[in-house]
């Protein structure tokens, strides 16, 4: 049933975003335009209208001379082809996703009217400005300070992520002590505390752990619904799962020399400790006087 629910949600959102909102998704929801505008500079290679060649633009009739005007015939096919509906001739814009569809549309028109292609092409703003001033265009160079800095930042980020993945623990444990009833004093004088243990198994295999307590000698440990002896009960954990267990910890009066003890709940596997967390064991105040 869950698979059908998520398939229906995916279908609904796909039709809503791609069929109804369309370019609004690219403009307002997609993070790429904001990232792009923050990263580019005048030497960035991107979809560019070569205004030094296309302007002044306007309709052109067959047989008319091309002197004194640009190659752009103002057909607006670049606008029609743009999935976000922008006019690339107005320069770099936030909505542009660098898809290049306007390049194909413009090249088709240039071929029909017998003019050179690449009126819209991948170029830099700096080269457009240089051609306006009569200087030759510069070859694109990927080795610029900005790109080198970005590369170092990306490499550092990737390194930190790789370090985190390779050094992360494959098991986690947390203990939450009961608050509504912090302790229970049994008829024989023993004191019992209740806890909820959460164990996170990050491995893709079933695992079995022994639970034992440090800092409270002679304590009787009981995991509700699980097996094992009174000093080290066993909990079973499925692959890639988070399980919660009910822990009851009982200690005799002779083991309690203060109203609260700091203890550690430890998980061990194959004879070695794999995870531990701190907890507190409480007892009645009047037990101190005795």
Q: And the CATH topology of the largest domain?
A: Immunoglobulin-like
Q: What share of residues is helical?
A: 25-40%
Rg over C-alpha atoms, rounded to the nearest angstrom: 35 Å
Portion in beta strands = 25-35%
Using the 3D structure, state the CATH architecture of the largest domain.
Answer: Sandwich
Structural class of the secondary structure composition?
Answer: alpha+beta
Q: Which CATH top level class of the largest domain fits?
A: Mainly Beta
Question: What is the string of helix and strand elements?
Answer: HHHEHHHEHHEEEEEEEEEH
Question: Which labels suit this protein?
Answer:
four-stranded antiparallel β-sheet; 32% helix; Immunoglobulin-like; 290 residues; five-stranded antiparallel β-sheet; 11 strands; alpha+beta; 2 domains
Could you write a compact summary of the structure shown?
With 290 residues, the chain is of the alpha+beta class.
Plain-language structure description:
The protein has 290 residues and is an alpha+beta fold. The protein folds into 2 domains: 31-137, no CATH class; 171-289, Immunoglobulins (Immunoglobulin-like, Sandwich), CATH 2.60.40. It is 32% helix and 26% strand. It contains 9 helices and 11 strands. The strands form 3 sheets. Strands 3, 4, 5, 7 and 9 form a 5-stranded antiparallel β-sheet that branches. It has a 4-stranded antiparallel β-sheet with strand order 8-6-10-11, with no helix packed on it. It is elongated and about 110 Å long. The model has no long low-confidence stretch (mean pLDDT 89).
């Amino acid at each position: 049933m869950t698979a059908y629910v998520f398939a229906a949600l995916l279908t609904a959102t796909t039709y809503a975003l791609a069929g109804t909102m369309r370019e609004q998704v690219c403009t307002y929801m997609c993070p790429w335009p904001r990232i792009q505008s923050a990263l580019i500079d005048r030497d960035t290679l991107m979809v560019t209208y070569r205004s030094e060649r296309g302007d002044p633009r306007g309709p052109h009739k067959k047989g008319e001379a091309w002197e004194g005007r640009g190659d752009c015939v103002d057909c607006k096919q670049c606008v029609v082809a743009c999935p976000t509906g922008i006019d690339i001739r107005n320069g770099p814009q936030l909505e542009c996703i660098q898809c290049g569809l306007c390049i194909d549309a413009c090249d088709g028109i240039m071929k029909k009217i017998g003019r050179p292609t690449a009126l819209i092409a991948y170029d830099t703003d700096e080269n457009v400005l240089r051609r306006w001033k009569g200087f030759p265009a510069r070859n694109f160079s990927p080795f610029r300070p900005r790109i080198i800095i970005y590369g170092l930042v990306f490499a550092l980020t990737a390194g930190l992520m790789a370090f985190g993945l390779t050094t992360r623990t494959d098991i986690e444990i947390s203990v939450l002590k009961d608050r509504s009833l912090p302790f229970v004093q049994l008829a024989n004088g023993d004191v019992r505390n209740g806890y909820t243990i959460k164990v996170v198994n990050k491995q893709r295999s079933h695992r079995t752990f022994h639970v034992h307590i440090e800092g409270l000698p002679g304590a009787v440990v009981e995991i509700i619904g699980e097996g094992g002896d009174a000093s080290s009960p066993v909990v079973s954990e499925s692959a890639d799962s988070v399980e919660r267990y009910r822990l009851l910890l009982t200690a005799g009066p002779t083991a309690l020399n203060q109203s609260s003890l700091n203890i550690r709940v430890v998980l061990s596997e194959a004879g070695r400790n794999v995870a531990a967390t701190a907890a507190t064991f409480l007892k009645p105040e009047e037990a101190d006087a005795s």
